[in-house]
Amino acid sequence: MQNIEKLLSIMATLRDGEKGCDWDKHQTFKSIVPHTLEEAYEVADAIEQNDWSQVKDELGDLLFQVIFYAQLGKEAGHFDFSDIVDNLNAKLVRRHPHVFATQQSLSRDELEAQWTAIKKTEKHDKAKQFGDDVPLNLPALSRAQKIQKRAANLGFDWPSYHGALDKVKEEVEEVIDAMDADPHSEHSGEELGDLLFATVNTARHGGFDAEQLLRQASRKFVDRFQHVEVELAKEGKSLDNANLEEMDNAWERVKKYQKSI
Q1: The dihedral formed by the CA atoms of 153, 156, 160 and 164, expressed in degrees to the nearest 10
Q2: What confidence category does residue 126 fall into, taking pLDDT thresholds of 50, 70 and 90?
Q3: pTM value?
Q4: pLDDT, tens digit, 9 for 90 and up, residues 150-189
Q5: Which of 29, 45, 116, 136 is the one with CA 20 to 30 A from 179?
Q6: C-alpha distances in Å from residue 114, one per residue of 133, 152, 211
Q7: CA 188, CA 138: separation in Å to the nearest integer?
Q8: Are 9 and 74 a contacting pair, CB within 8 Å?
Q9: CB atoms within 10 A of CB 132
Q10: What's the CA dihedral at 40, 41, 46, 49 to 10 degrees?
């Protein structure tokens, strides 16, 4: 624990009124939230790239965020790092009675039901209505998936992915109708939102995380487009002066090559 104590000491020094860092001294709970979110995404990105040296580094940056909040909480008299750890220890034991109490093996469905029941008892006095316990500032895809999971836990769900996928098909038709009428209308936007929501639900039924899937798809697009840029350069072209047909032809060549390896 000496390295944790050293880290806490470093954080306290950074916040020291006289010898601390001017930037750190002026931060608040709210001001460092964007940095916390950014660090979390950088951890996810490093993991998805299997860059374990970077994962270690990014996890350290994420831990620093927790240490920062702990220092702010201590200064305000709300809590300190020890309180955070004590609370976490108690929560982990409480939410895993099959490990720390009864020592029994449960199926995935049984574990999910147990977890949901325990969390419900913990938050019975916090959430007044459905969805109140899902943070509004979550990324939209993640929030949609959590909302859908909450509904599923209440029994409001398709029995399999087939129903979810049929809903996607239905929403596609509604998007087509709306955009054929007016692609820029509020109604078109609403139908596109419904399509996104239905797609997230289908991902959930497949056991996927929608946020992660879209990050991976975006990364794949960037990688492929960078190869398109290389292909165009071979022909003396660039992304700035190539026309759509030239870019599309290069795209198809890259796509065909990547699928063959």
Answers
A1: -120
A2: low
A3: 0.74
A4: 999 889 999 999 999 999 999 999 999 999 999 999 999 9
A5: 136
A6: 18, 14, 25
A7: 24
A8: no
A9: 12
A10: 150
3-state DSSP of the chain:
CHHHHHHHHHHHHHCCCCCCCHHHHCCCCCCCHHHHHHHHHHHHHHHHCCCHHHHHHHHHHHHHHHHHHHHHHHHHCCCCHHHHHHHHHHHHHHCCHHHHCCCCCCCHHHHHHHHHHHHHHHCCCCCCCCCCCCCCCCCHHHHHHHHHHHHHHCCCCCCCHHHHHHHHHHHHHHHHHHHHHCCCCHHHHHHHHHHHHHHHHHHHHCCCCHHHHHHHHHHHHHHHHHHHHHHHHHCCCCCCCCCHHHHHHHHHHHHHHHHHC
- Please give the single-letter amino acid code of residue 92: L
Structure tokens at 222: 């960037």
The pair of structure tokens assigned to 21 is: 């860092």
